[in-house]
Task: inverse folding
């Protein structure tokens, strides 16, 4: 799960948990909202942990290139 999808789940969960007052028979929409909110936060935290271990977006530009000048004479 990426950062964008995690933020989407957080937003959707917050909307369902706090803004929707519609009731369905046998389904509690607020609980579904809280579940989506928690899953989104966990996904965001895990994405940030793995993002920092990967090195971030500038990882490839920080690499150094060394040119071997050939075998010694």
Result:
């Amino acid at each position: 799960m990426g950062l964008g999808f995690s933020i989407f789940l957080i937003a959707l969960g917050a909307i369902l948990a706090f803004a929707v007052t519609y009731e369905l028979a046998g389904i509690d929409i607020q609980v579904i909202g809280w579940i989506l909110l928690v899953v989104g936060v966990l996904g965001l935290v895990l994405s940030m942990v793995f993002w920092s271990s990967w090195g971030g977006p500038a990882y490839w530009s920080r690499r150094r290139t060394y040119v071997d000048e050939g075998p010694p004479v």
User: Anything to note?
Assistant: The mean pLDDT is 82. Helices lie at 3-19, 29-54.
